[in-house]
Specification:
With about 425 residues, this protein is mainly β. About 5% of the residues lie in helices and about 65% in strands. The chain is globular and about 60 Å long.
């Protein structure tokens, strides 16, 4: 733990030393919440409602556009801490048991663009998004090389993050990689903004145990004006099965009408680490063909509608959605949302109304929802709730927000949660002559 804390503090020091950059941005957010928490009783399998009143502090600092003869650099760090103002909560994911406090570093890295931006490196705690990495969160490094004629090459390696500096490779790991080492890369080719093709690999292991062995591919095509086709997928080399495939086509038929068609195949167990016992409890693979429309009949009105057919080995189903939004008079937004989901032996209907309004420095939102379940949960077949928020800009850099959520559902006969948020954001720019 001491080593990991040292790494985190070094990242903080790195940003502090980079504060002489041309652009320095800092933000601090304080969040105070209070409400009921559904937690297991001590020494029992039964659950009970407990009061929870945590106070969170989220701090982010970034220094960018730091230039020298080598290239351009950026340093970023974002961390959070929390303490229980009320009864001690049952912290999860590696937090100290019986402690009022917890915290972690989300990201802390140095990025550099060298050789006229043909080479980019990033060192520290970061998220990897390229190829089929699937947002792996790790402490390590990444290199991106931009080659002539539209080719590109990238690679990464590091130790996947465990929250709150807990042991790596355990069930406390974030995301889908419970490992001690993760590595991979992507090769790509693009042409004139009309074609981009990529092939990638993602590997991870916990000691000698296999966690991920995957190969992926992605594409983006614009063969015609107004038509865009994107696709991605990956194959589990360890299981010799296709884990996920997605293809989508969007066509701007008219200025006010966009058509969308897509298809997805997914094997949920292959989205988990191969060393996870939870893989045996997930549902079987399914296929989801469908499509939708995005229609703007008036300048201030938008309508989105879609339907997908769900085909699985344990039965078929479907999901549908229609959403309408009006954005017009004096910064007022009003909308309605209707959704339906049907899967084997279950399903629900959702009706939702929402709106927001801004009066100068003051703003507010209201969100109402109602669920009707096809199968009862804890003897209840519906839930009803509402969230009301209000925000005020105290000054250009300061904002305060108050929010309250009330309602009832199968787990709470009645509930009320409140939250207060104070945010400070500041941008410092040094003019270079």
């Amino acid at each position: 733990m001491r080593t990991r804390l040292t790494v985190a503090l070094a990242a903080l020091g790195l940003v502090a030393s980079a504060a002489r950059g041309d652009v320095l941005q800092a933000s601090s957010t304080t969040i105070v919440t209070a409400g009921q928490s559904f937690r297991p009783q001590a020494g029992s399998t039964d659950y009970e409602l407990k009061l929870a009143a945590p106070v969170y502090e989220i701090v982010s600092v970034s220094a960018s556009e730091m230039r020298n003869s080598w290239g351009e650099f950026e340093a970023v760090v974002s961390a959070w801490g929390a303490v229980d103002a009320g009864p001690i909560r049952f912290w999860q994911n590696g937090a100290p048991a019986g402690s009022r406090g917890s915290g972690d570093v989300d990201v802390g890295y140095l990025r550099g663009d060298l050789l006229g931006r043909h080479l980019t490196f990033r060192l520290g705690r970061q998220m990897i998004v390229e190829g089929n990495a699937r947002m792996v969160h790790l402490d390590g490094g990444q290199l991106v090389l931009r080659l002539p004629r539209g080719f590109g090459l990238s690679g990464y390696a590091g130790a996947p993050v465990a929250p709150r500096f807990d042991a790596r490779g355990t069930q406390f790991a974030t995301g889908n990689t419970a490992a001690t080492l993760a590595y991979g890369g992507r090769v790509s080719w693009g042409y004139a903004g009309r074609v981009e093709l990529g092939a990638s690999v993602a590997m991870a292991q916990s000691g000698s145990e296999v966690v991920r062995r995957e190969a992926g591919a992605d594409l983006r095509l614009t063969p015609l004006h107004g038509l865009e086709i994107v696709g991605s997928g990956f194959y589990s080399l360890y299981d010799a099965r296709l884990a996920q495939a997605l293809v989508s086509a969007q066509y701007q038929l008219l200025r006010t009408l966009q058509l969308i068609a897509d298809y997805q195949h997914v094997e949920p167990d292959l989205l988990l680490p191969r060393n996870s016992i939870l893989a045996v409890f997930v549902s079987d693979g399914r296929d989801e063909p469908g499509g939708g429309v995005h229609w703007t009949p008036l300048r201030t009105v938008t309508v989105d509608a879609d339907y997908h057919y769900l085909k699985a080995s344990d039965g078929d189903g479907g999901r549908a959605r229609v959403k309408g939004t009006w954005n017009g008079w004096r910064r007022t937004v009003l909308g309605a949302d209707l959704q339906y989901l049907k899967i084997p032996e279950s399903g629900y209907t959702l009706a939702r109304l929402f709106g927001s309004r801004t009066w100068g420095r003051l703003g507010g939102t209201l969100d109402l929802w109602w669920y009707r379940y096809e199968k009862q949960v804890n003897g209840q077949d519906q839930s009803l709730g509402a969230t009301l928020t209000g925000g005020y800009a105290l000054a250009p850099a300061w904002k305060v927000l108050l929010a309250a959520t009330a309602g009832s559902d199968p787990f709470y006969k009645s509930r009320l949660d409140v939250m207060a948020k104070l945010q400070w954001t500041q941008l410092f720019v040094r003019e270079v002559r």
